[in-house]
Write a structure and sequence with these properties.
Helix content is about 45%, strand content about 15%. The protein is of the alpha/beta class. Helix 8 packs antiparallel against helix 10 and helix 9 packs across helix 11.
Length: about 450
Amino acid sequence: MSSLIHERAADTVAAAARPLERGWDELIDVAGDAEVVLIGEASHGTHEFYAIRAELTRRLIAERGFGIVALEADWPDALRIHRYVAGRGDDPDARAALADFRRFPSWMWRNTVMVDFVEWLHGWNRDHPEATTGIFGMDLYSLHSSIDAVLAYLDRVDPQAAARARARYGCFDHFAHDPQRYGFATMRGDAESCEDDVVAQLIELRRRYGARFDGGDGLDDDELFYAQQNASLVANAERYYREMFRGRANSWNLRDQHMTETLEALSAHHRAPRNKIVVWAHNSHLGDARATEMSERGEINVGQLTRERFGRVYGIGFSTYDGTVTAARDWGEPAERRRVLPGLPGSYEALLHSTGRSRFWLDLHERGPALDSLRRPRLQRAIGVIYRPETERWSHYFETTLPQQFDALVHVDRTSALEPLERDSAWQREELPETYPEGL
């Protein structure tokens, strides 16, 4: 009976599927009216997810006036890209502009799709000075890089303020540029926290930024805004590293709150209508947490918070059944091109595979039997920068209700690994199934 129900569900979903070969006009029409468009990914290492996301974003910029692209990337690293696409940097091309993404996992942004997209955005801004688009990071791992950026800015514009900031940030000097060491020491009570110092520095920069609305102080508004955002990142990262040893929910929530606050700041800083935002991040950040088992653990995410804080938000998720993915075996290890196991029975991936369609998207608001079939909670796969097929059920699946999680879903049944700019022997050697050569 369960097999018959599965077949009927697959048939109804197949009938509602919109083949990618027909193009994106309908999806752009429905998403383009939103204030924020969230474009996810089911892994941090799948070529098709990045390529489709870039294509959708190009059209949202060119046809629907979106002026901000926000990445699941650190603010100072992404700011170098922004300066290049805005014509304000020193880099000769996109590859050079991506050079600050050197820390693990560098392939998330140092990849061939990003090079093409960044070059396109550079050309768009050059040819459309009246409709320029910025690209920014919204993550918070870059505590020390952001400290360096704040100090560099203040050294240029106000040496006395730079001296005050250097004294405040000196609180971290005892931890050898290791924020996790700082967090562990403060959690154990072996060191005083730097919270008061980083908050004081943030308040000073916020006051300076606010002064521009009262006549200004003759400084570049954008550069002052970038410095303030770096100071905000330092304050939130300081809290994040203190909380990461107290439990996943606390640190996860702080991170997604910071990313959402960054989106709010970007929207406020840019003038309408060029303050419409496209967000690139993992499905787990952009699908509404209230539709998943994350909420049972007390976790929130960008998908939930943007829907609560912005006007119209449109979320697009991605899925795949099998193929290859760029991922590491553990944190800090080399990127490899790894085989993705077929979707587990009972998962959304297995259901979408059963439609017999290879590349399609679904309107999750469309009424009909397909939506009814998708409303049943099912497992959904999430691969980050680490892939552990040996424990896949527990490492990479969680339960969700798809139509409550996203507004649309793009499914590519068999996908291929994202191509890093640096490809060593570990990546060049594609992982083979354990049963090779029998293929059983």
